[in-house]
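Pilot study result, target chain (195 residues):
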Amino acid sequence: MTDKKPPSIRKEFCEIAKFGNKRTDPYRWLRDNDWQTVLHDPASLAPEIRKHIDAENQYFNESAKDFSAFTASVAKEMKNRLSPRDASIPERDSAYEYWSEYRPGENYRVYMQKNVTTGMQRILLDADKESAGKKFFDVAQLTHSPDHQTVAYMVDCEGAGNFSLKFRDVETGLDLPETLVNTKGQVIWSTDSSQ
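Predicted structure:
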């Protein structure tokens, strides 16, 4: 274990009054006044705050070195407890079934569609393939249109909860040009699948 001491941090007392209660926060200065902008543009973080966060991260990384083998063994054990081909129960909608599954050795879901009349299956979204080359990847939701021709899915590639809503043509497997950025919530299609 490292002998290095954690970075010291100054206290700057700030009184906060909310909901009829008062409290004192000695570390309020660590929250950037324009924190919502920082979520979208981390480079805009105040230099003094960035310096302290970098020092804490460096301390953690040095301290955690001694536990890397243990951490890897726990992660391996947890992964070994998962079913190698875990899948959701197919949900039927008209002549189609929809489900998601994990492939053995992969980290993300594959979202599937099956025509129950013909038996033809399609991959709607292969999240492992989509995540390639990205430091962070999260699919929050995938919803098919009532006519089963388009899927809408929300994806975050930054890790700050800033989702982009994308639309994909089921037949071609290609994303449509329309994208809504920095969005949250739930996708609800109009009954005619136009919106």
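One observation from the pilot: The two ends are 57 Å apart (CA to CA). A full batch analysis is planned for the follow-on phase.
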